[in-house]
Design a protein that fits this description.
Elements (H helix, E strand, L loop, with lengths): L15 E3 L9 E2 L13 E4 L4 H4 L5 E3 L7 E4 L24 H5 L2 E5 L5 E6 L5 E2 L4 E2 L1 E2 L2 E2 L1 H29 L3 E9 L5 E10 L1 H5 L3 H10 L1 H11 L3 H14 L4
Antiparallel strand pairs: 1-7, 2-8, 2-9, 3-5, 4-5, 6-7, 10-11, 12-13
Length: 249
Amino acid sequence: MSESASTPTPVFYKNPVPLDRVRHGAKRFARPKDFAFAIGVNSVPLAAIEFNAASKHYPVVFTAGDPIGAVAVLGFEGSRNVFVSDDMRWAEDMYVPAYVRRYPFVFTRTPQGEYVLCVEEGAGHISDTDGEPFFVDGKPAKIVEEALRFSSDYQVQIEQTHAFTKACAAAGLFVDNRASIQTPDGRSITLQGFRTIDTKRFETLPEATVLDWWRRGWLMLAYAHLNSLGNWQVLANRGTRAARAKPPG
C-alpha cells in the first residue's frame, strides 16, 4: 500500500536528483498548482504528528515493512486517490498530508547515512524562465530554504513515528488486518496488506507502559489510529460518488 524505508524511489517520484548549485544554478521553480501528481496512489506515508488531523478524514494504518511506517489510506481500488477530483483539486476541507505538500522535494539518504535534499526533475515544475530561482548569487534562494526546513522537520517527525511503531511492535500490539467494504452500489471490496493495533492487547498494556506512553503522547496516537478506522465506509462512499460522476469512456 505504501512506501517503505527500503523502497529505492518513494511514492510520486521517478527521478529525484540532488539539488545542486551547478546543475540547478540557473533553473527556476514553479510551485505545483494542482494535485495531478497524487491521483495515482491509494496511500501516502504519514507522520505521527499528523495522526489527529488525518484521522478525521482517512483510515490511518501501519505498513508491514521495517521500520514499520504509518500511512493515510486514500483509495480502495487499485492506484486511485479518491480525494483528488477530475479537475485535480484535493477534496475541500480535507487534511492534505505533509508528504503530499512536500512534493516535488524529498530527502534521500546517501550510503554514508546523510540526508540530501532532492527535487523531482520530471515533475514539470523546473524551467529556465518561469517561477522562483533555486539559487541567487550562488546561494540557496527562499524556495530552497523553505524546502530544506520542511523536509528536515518532516524527517524528524518520521523518525519519531518509527519510535512509536517500534514500541507498538515490541508490545505485541500489531496484527495483520484487512478491511471489507460494502460500496453503496452493492459491491464488496477487501483491502489487505496492512496492520492495525489490536484493541484487546492495547487495553491490557501494563500500567507502567500506559503511564510512559501517556507522557510521550503515544496514547493519543493509538486512539487517533483506532478512531480513524471508522473512515473505511467514508472512503467507499467517496469512491462510489467519484465513479458515478465520471462520464462513460
